[in-house]
């Protein structure tokens, strides 16, 4: 069990925040009022919140101390100078453009480099990243290795790019139609799986052959470096900081949602070696985020981020953080719950298709499972399956489901103890034991893009009258 293999946290807890578990009848009412979409739940109605690891970090004493010394100057902030130096020291990029989170950085990158009709190869794009490519007029293409689509098979680097797939895309589309290659570290869309250093070298070599720049989605780059240290030959005796620096040596730049591995509650950046790209993005940054030396952040946020970039590579912290996720995964496996193996660095991904094989993909098994987990234990997790990644061909109306149907249990950094995660495991195992009685969901209303964030859903068995009431409540 999870608690039997627990390791003490490599930190002391100096502040606490009360949480409460409301009773099942209340949870049922809250879920119905939220249109059976856990994104719409009030945080106070959630007991243990594993929806995301983004912006949910508990910051360190040094970061909180840094906040008090943040420089709020509009231009030339010394906190920005500290951030720039931290990026150069840790990642190796000369030019730094701060944003309030990762999405503006993606917007600026794709808006600048992608023209209508072009394609952007990835290992696998996350839904919001893919949307930014689409808005720029491009198409994101997944080139992840086939092993990444086999949830039950153990493999150390399921986030690797299939280099032959990548070559086929470049040669099939033509070099001029591929403005950049993007690699997510780790691969969030495919279970938080890492990318090997050997694969990054191979991608870089192919990109150089065609003179195409490589950019990283760096949200969980420190966890990726830790997996390389633990799993790849030749890296066991190197520090995570050293491995991190080598990773980025194979990229022209990165977008970075710093709300993940960089240990802050808000913040992001676009970093690059290209002065030409930097100069193109600066006017967009000023227009949409703020001046170039603060972007979308306050000086105190810049200060906390500069510290977080240095703290994120602490080997003891990463050993505990990744180990905590692994222990939760092992406990669920022992209870019979099918998960994507091996566990990722930031989350356990439940194989919702294997958990609910009787629920067709058109009835959104991941969302059905998310609802049931909330009802059972007040735990909020997020579905990453048909609702998030469904593809519709505009010309024909043909719909295709993604190859993976996952429920993500994302673990906030330095927030929950193993006893919290033991409660999560108990709740999910109970749901698994009554899985045959679970039914699917249908869409009541949803926007055309990024449906899973705001869709109103209803259980298949709910009568039309109840659905109408649900819609009225949501309005």
Automatic annotation (TrEMBL):
Its cofactor is pyridoxal 5'-phosphate. Pfam families: Beta_elim_lyase. It comes from the Bacteria. The modification N6-(pyridoxal phosphate)lysine is found at residue 260. InterPro entries: ArAA_b-elim_lyase/Thr_aldolase, Beta-eliminating_lyase, PyrdxlP-dep_Trfase, PyrdxlP-dep_Trfase_major, PyrdxlP-dep_Trfase_small. Keywords: Lyase, Pyridoxal phosphate. Its EC number is 4.1.99.1. Transmembrane segments: none annotated. GO terms for molecular function: tryptophanase activity. It is an enzyme of class 4 (lyase). Belongs to the beta-eliminating lyase family. NCBIfam families: PRK13238.1. Homotetramer. This is Tryptophanase.
């Amino acid at each position: 069990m999870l608690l039997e293999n627990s390791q003490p946290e490599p930190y002391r807890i100096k502040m606490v925040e009360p949480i409460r578990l409301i009773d099942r009848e209340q949870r049922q009412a809250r879920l119905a009022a939220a249109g059976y979409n856990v994104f719409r739940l009030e945080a106070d109605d959630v007991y243990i919140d594993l929806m995301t690891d983004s912006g949910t970090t508990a910051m360190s004493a040094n970061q909180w101390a840094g906040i008090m010394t943040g420089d709020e100057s509009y231009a030339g902030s010394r906190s920005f100078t500290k951030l720039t130096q931290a990026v150069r020291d840790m990642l190796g990029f000369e030019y730094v453009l701060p944003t309030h989170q990762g999405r503006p950085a993606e917007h600026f990158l794709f808006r600048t480099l992608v023209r209508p009709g072009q394609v952007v190869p990835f290992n696998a794009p996350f839904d919001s990243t893919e949307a930014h490519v689409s808005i720029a007029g491009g198409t994101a293409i997944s080139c992840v290795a086939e092993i990444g689509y086999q949830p039950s098979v153990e493999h150390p680097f399921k986030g690797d790019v299939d280099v032959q797939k990548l070559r086929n895309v470049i040669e099939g589309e033509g070099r001029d139609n591929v403005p950049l290659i993007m690699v997510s570290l780790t691969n969030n869309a495919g279970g938080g799986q890492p990318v090997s250093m050997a694969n990054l070298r191979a991608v870089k070599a192919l990109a150089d052959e065609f003179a195409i720049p490589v950019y990283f989605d760096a949200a969980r780059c420190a966890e990726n470096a830790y997996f390389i240290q633990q799993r790849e030959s030749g890296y066991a005796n190197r520090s995570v900081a050293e491995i991190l620096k080598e990773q980025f040596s194979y990229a022209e730049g990165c977008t970075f949602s710093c709300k993940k591995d960089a240990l802050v509650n808000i913040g992001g950046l676009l970093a690059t070696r290209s002065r030409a790209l930097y100069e193109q993005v600066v006017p967009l940054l000023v227009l949409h985020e703020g001046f170039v030396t603060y972007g979308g952040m306050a000086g105190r946020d810049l200060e906390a981020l500069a510290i977080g970039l240095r703290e994120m590579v602490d080997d003891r912290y990463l050993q505990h953080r990744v180990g905590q996720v692994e222990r939760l995964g092992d406990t669920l496996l022992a209870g019979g719950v099918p998960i994507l193996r091996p566990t990722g660095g930031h989350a356990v991904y439940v194989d919702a298709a294997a958990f609910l094989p009787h629920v067709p993909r058109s009835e959104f098994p991941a969302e059905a499972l998310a609802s049931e987990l909330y009802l059972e234990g007040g735990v909020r997790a997020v579905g990453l399956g048909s609702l998030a990644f469904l593809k519709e061909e505009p010309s024909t109306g043909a719909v295709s489901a993604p190859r993976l149907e996952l429920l993500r249990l994302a673990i906030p950094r330095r927030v929950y103890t193993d006893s919290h995660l033991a409660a999560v495991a108990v709740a999910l195992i109970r749901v698994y034991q009554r899985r045959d009685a679970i039914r699917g969901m249908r869409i009541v209303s949803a926007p055309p893009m990024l449906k899973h964030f705001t869709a109103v859903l209803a259980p298949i068995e709910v009568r039309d009258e109840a659905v109408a009431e649900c819609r009225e409540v949501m309005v």
